[in-house]
Amino acid sequence: MENRAELTIDGRRLSYLDFGGPGRPLVALHGHLSEGATFARLAADLGPGRRLIAPDQRGQGESDRAADYSREGYLADLEALLDHLNLDRVALLGHSLGAINAYQFAARHPGRVSALVNAEGPAELGLDGKNPFGFLLSLPHSAPTRDALITGLGQAAPFFADRLRENPDGTWRLPFHPKEMYESEEHVHGDHWADWTKSGCPALLVHATRGVIPAEQVRAMVDRRPGTTAAQVDADHLVYTSAPEAFAAAVRDFLATV
C-alpha cells in the first residue's frame, strides 16, 4: 500500500509516493505532464523485491510550483529527497524528462547511484530549436468548474481529464502549469552526451519502437557508455504505461543482474 508523504525545500512542498516493501530502493522519476502515481503498476509488477519511491517532480502532481525549472533545480530536488529518506545509494529509473534528470544526477553524484534505468531519455534533443510543447501555451491552467476546465482544454482534455485537481475554493486546475512545463521543456533541450557518458554504474536504456530516440542515437548511447545494455519495447514514448508488462519485465531482468 503506497504512502504519500512530503518534504519542504526552501518553503516549497515536494510530494512523493513510497510504495513500501522490504526490497532495495528504486527511485522512479516521471516525465513532463505526469506524476509519481503513474508508477503504481510498475511498483506492483516489481513486487516486494523493490521498494519503489516516486516523487511528483517540481510543479507537477501534488508538488508545489517552483520559481524555475532549471536542470540544477530538478537535480537539487532529487538530492534533497534522498537525504530526507536517508538513502545513501539507490537505483534510479526515469522516463523522458525523468530519465535525463536521473542520468544527470548519476553524473554529478556517482556514489549515490547503483544502477540506472533510462526509459526514452535521449542524450541530445531539441537541437533544432523546436519545442513540441507549443500546444500547451493555449491551454488554461484553471477554471471555475471541472466542466469548464475540460471545455477549455479542448482536444487535450482526454489526456488529462482523470487527473484534474479541485482547489480548496472549489475551482479546478491541471496538475501542472502549462506555461511552466513549456519552460521546463526548453531547459531540458541540449547536448547531454557528457552527462550520459560520465557515470559508470550499470545502465539499461529502454527505447520504444515508436519512441523519440532515433535508432542511430540508441546505438551510440550504448556504444559510448560502458556498462549499458538496451531493451526495445513495442510501444510509444509513454513506454511504461503503454506496454507495462514488457517494460516491467525488462526492468526486473536488468535489476536482477546488479
Q: What's the mean pLDDT score?
A: 97
- H and E string: EEEHEHEHEEEHHEEHEHEHEHH
Q: What about the largest sheet?
A: 8 strands, mixed
CATH architecture: 3-Layer(aba) Sandwich
Whole-number tally of structural domains: 1
**So, the CATH homologous superfamily?**
Alpha/Beta hydrolase fold, catalytic domain
Amount of helix? 25-40%
What name does the CATH topology carry?
Answer: Rossmann fold
Count of alpha/pi helices = 10
Strand content: 25-35%
Distance between the termini: 26 Å
* Shape descriptor: globular
Secondary-structure-based class equals alpha/beta
Strand order of the largest sheet: 1-2-4-3-5-6-12-13
Structural summary, described in words:
The radius of gyration is 18 Å and the shape is globular. The protein has a single domain (3-125, 184-255), classed as Rossmann fold. Helices cover 34% and strands 26% of the residues. The protein contains 10 helices and 13 strands. 38% of the residues are buried. The protein has 258 residues and is α/β, with parallel strands linked by helices. It has helices at 40-46, 71-84, 97-108, 146-153, 157-160, 178-188, 193-198, 215-224, 239-242, 244-255; strands spanning 3-9, 12-18, 24-29, 50-55, 90-95, 113-119, 124-125, 142-143, 165-166, 172-173, 190-191, 203-210, 228-236.
Q: What secondary-structure arrangement, pairings included, does this model have?
A:
Layout: E1 3-9, E2 12-18, E3 24-29, H1 40-46, E4 50-55, H2 71-84, E5 90-95, H3 97-108, E6 113-119, E7 124-125, E8 142-143, H4 146-153, H5 157-160, E9 165-166, E10 172-173, H6 178-188, E11 190-191, H7 193-198, E12 203-210, H8 215-224, E13 228-236, H9 239-242, H10 244-255
Parallel strand pairs: 3-4, 3-5, 5-6, 6-12, 12-13
Antiparallel strand pairs: 1-2, 2-4, 7-11, 8-10, 9-10
Helix pairs in contact: 1-10, 2-3
